[in-house]
Amino acid sequence: MFTTKELKAIHILAACLLTLAYSCTPPKTITQSGKVTPKGQVKVGMDYSVNVPTHVVRSIYDNVGSIVGPLLSKDTIYVDAQLMGLNRTALAYAIEPIGVGYHYYARYGILKKFDVGYKYASGTHTFDAMYQFMGSTGSINEPGENKMCGSIGLQFSSKSYELPGWNGLNKAQTILGFEMKRKDFIIPLIFSIPFGPEETIGNFSFGMVYTRSFLNYGFKSNKIFDTIAQTAPVALQSLNNKANYGGVGIFFNLKLGYKYIYALPAFAMYYQNYGSFMLLDGSKAGFRGVTFVPSLGIQINPTQIYYDVRKRKK
Q: What is the largest CA-CA distance in the chain?
C-alpha cells in the first residue's frame, strides 16, 4: 500500500514519464519546392535532420537518467527539490526534444497541379498532399515557363506511443497504465525560384509553416490508491486529459543537381507556445521557445531515369 508521500511522488514521476512520451514528434523539415511532382512521375529521397529547441538544455536532460533510475528501485520515494526539478526538466525536454534522425519519403504526381507524399520518420508514418497554384506544371521532358512556383500543402501524422526501455521506463508505464496518442498537422506555404527549365538543375525554395498538435493522454491502473482525502485507501480513478498547441515557422531549402539526383540542404525555424500542462498533483508548467531544424538530404527522380533509358534504347 502507498503512503501519502509515496503517492504524491508517483504522481510527479508519472507526469515526468508522460512528458517523455511526447519526445517523438513529426518531421518538421521542409524539402519540397513550390513546384509539385509532375503528373504520373515519382520522386524518392532521404534526409538527415536535427531538432534543436532553445527551451531545454541537453546537460540538464542528461541528469534525468541518474535520477529516475534510483527512484524506480526504491520502495519509498520522498518529494524534494531534486524530484520537482526532474518533473519540470522532463516536461521541457519531452514536449520538444533535442533529437536527430533519418527520414525516407516518396512523392507521386496524382494530378496536373496536385501530388501526394509519404514519409517515414523514426517510427512515425506521415502523409501529405500539395496543391500548386502558381508557376509551370510541366516536366523536364516538356519544359514550360521558367518562372517562380508556389504551392500549399497539408501534412498529417498520428501515433500511439509506448515509453522506451531506457532506465526501466517501460516497466513504469505498465504500473501506471499510461497511454498517449497524438495527431499533428503541418501546413506549409512554399515558393521556389527554378534553376533551369522545370528545375532541371534545381531550385531555391522558401516560405512559411503553421503547425498544430493534439494530444490525448491518460493513466489507468488498479495498483495505485488514494489516501490523501479518504479515510480509507481508495483505488485512484482513471485519468484522461487533452492538450493542444500551435506554432509558426519559416524555412528555406536549396536543391542542386541535374535531372536524376539532387542534394537538398534545408533549414527551418519554428516559434511555439506550448501552453500550460497540468500535472497530476494539480500544479502547472508552461513553456514556449524557438526550434531550429537543419537537414541535409538527397532526392532521386526514378521516372526521369526510366524515361531517358527508354529514349536511348530507341
A: 89
